[in-house]
Design a protein that fits this description.
Two copies of one chain form a homodimer.
Chain A (H helix, E strand, L loop, with lengths): L2 E6 L3 H9 L6 E8 L15 E3 L12 E4 L7 H9 L3 E4 L7 H15 L2 E3 L8 H12 L3 E7 L2 E2 L1 H8 L4 E10 L1 H8 L8 H4 E9 L5 H9 L9 E6 L2 H7 L5 E11 L5 E11 L2 H22 L3 E3 L14 H7 L2
Parallel strand pairs in A: 1-2, 1-4, 2-3, 4-5, 5-6, 6-14, 10-11
Antiparallel strand pairs in A: 7-12, 8-9, 9-10, 12-13
Helix pairs in contact in A: 1-10, 2-3
Chain lengths: 328, 328
């Protein structure tokens, strides 16, 4: 029987989950839950019902795993523990500093309910975290480097759009090629914030706005831009719509370590992602972990998990025999 | 109490395990087992005893995990099942096609003995296998590409040295840069054997040997060289000793996949290793998995495992709380 999946929310990530379920032969989308009036939401999959989130408490018999597609800032910290009391739940909580607190709350709710939850699935946190963990275990003596981009930072784009006179704006985070090369060389460089990433902004200004002032405001914005080399381009609304609506992203994780009795041998582990669609890739990771969470639930291994707790074989629809024969 | 490690064998891999144990604060080298007369073997670590392999059956109380550092061709298929009846054992069995058979034998012995074993730890099989598994689970629709090198192929070097008139020889496997770029572009190329790797040979010829014949014999050797663009350099014994004694290696694993309702988004996952010392890196992987195997033994989860069965958190000396706070 297919794993019965529910989606909570219907933003970019939820739509990614909806599209990628079609690539998981052992899963079935059984419903989408929304805070809006369900009759106003038209989803892409034929024949799948839309429910109100208020109905979540009545549908526990119909779903094996719920994918909570809310935002990390204010939604997931409240709703994942709430849903974890009813369902096996996966989320993509990405506020790194608050993960321990979130974990504790979700773990308590899941254990009490006899359910499995898995938080912070995606690529960072998620696949990048896994690479950091594996490579730290393999090369205990060394340095970690994480670079993001080229891709859109939602937080920085929001910050630009809050500036008076700005009609629309998008910010790309870009790794500095020289910094990547320095890390790849094994020289274990110490890199400042400015040396690691540049920021490129595309801004649509209101008519008559003071562009020089907007540019200055962006470049001097503390935390967001002041510590970076930032470029600002003013473009038309048409160009913005044509060239800056994509959701691509990516990044790099390095471990640069040494071995040998005298530390005489260098090793570089490099992992990189180049993603046309950040939400669809994140959704794909979430679905693989939904499979694993359901398997743990069937084994009675309740509580909150992260990617660190999941044996890789649990992510695959193939059997152990098949995996050893084909992929080892 | 530290995990008490034993090493069986004392070749390159074993010496790598010996050096890398010093980077694992929770482990202690308690002995090296050899087929030679133990009194003739001088190891690098002070105060660690050398035993004969014939003593293995008498030392089961003194070791938590044995690292079997034998070769895959004829040694490991026989000895790992044998040692698995006595100890928790790790090996680096790398004959991909025979893994299922090896697994079955070791699994039976370990389960009967109430021990844990883990086979095929290293980087391929090992870390490369993990990348293939993770990325196949995340991007079910796509293509895998594995490239090896630049690094020494022991099998190909041996094949060269068996040619009459050859005094010494070394063969480097080199990924073709254009093939790497084609994969990185997301074009999902179909690549022939010749398009993926070139082979570069450094040969010391016996005095008076027919170099043209040696070169022809190498280049036309079926399976080993005939399907590749091969370059042969004749060099002096001095140059060979000075420049071709390193044990560096590496390689690349790619997954090039698509997402979206119409498969309209491309994603590239790239993992690469650049290793100054193949045996020391392999040893480092083995030690992380020795830690995990011992933890499974303590939990009573007996039998043979592979890297696919090990939750990443088990590889780390840090606690779950620490890992979530620092690396997720």
């Amino acid at each position: 029987m297919a794993i019965r999946i529910g989606i909570i929310g219907y933003g970019n990530l939820a739509r990614g989950v909806e599209s990628e379920i079609s690539r998981c032969p052992d899963m079935e989308l059984k419903g989408v839950f929304t805070r809006r009036d369900p009759s106003t939401l038209k989803i892409k999959t034929e024949g799948v019902p839309v429910y109100s989130v208020s109905e979540l408490k009545d549908k526990t018999a119909d779903f094996d795993v719920m994918i909570n597609c809310g935002g990390s800032a204010t939604d997931l910290p409240v709703t994942t523990p709430e849903y974890a009391a009813l369902y096996n739940v996966i989320d993509s909580f990405d506020t790194h500093a608050k993960i321990p607190e979130h974990f504790a709350k979700v773990d308590e709710a899941s254990k009490k309910a006899g359910k499995v939850s898995l938080i912070s699935a995606g690529w960072d946190p998620g696949m990048f975290s896994l690479q950091r963990l594996y490579s730290n275990c393999i090369l205990p003596e060394g340095n970690d480097y994480t670079f993001w981009g080229k891709g859109v930072s939602q937080g920085h784009s929001d910050a630009i759009r809050r500036i008076p006179g700005v009609k629309n704006g998008k910010q790309y985070t870009i790794p500095v090629p020289e910094a990547l090369d320095a890390v790849r060389s094994g020289s274990n460089p110490t890199l400042t914030t400015r040396q690691k990433h540049t920021r490129e902004c595309f801004v649509v200004a209101e008519e008559g706005a003071d562009k020089a002032l907007i540019e200055k405001t962006i470049k001097e914005m503390p935390n967001y831009f002041a510590d970076y080399d930032t470029t600002v381009h003013f473009i038309s609304e048409e160009e913005f719509a044509a060239n800056h609506s994509k959701l691509n992203h990516g990044g790099f994780v390095f471990r640069s370590g040494i071995t040998g009795l005298n530390g005489e041998h260098k090793h570089i582990i490099e992992y990189s992602l180049k993603l046309d669609s950040n939400p669809e890739f994140t959704a794909s990771v979430i679905l693989a972990y939904a499979r694993a969470a359901f398997r743990l639930f069937e084994k009675g291994d309740f509580g909150c998990k992260t990617v660190f707790d999941i044996a890789p074989a649990l992510l695959s629809p193939l059997s152990g025999d098949e995996l050893r024969a084909k992929m080892l």
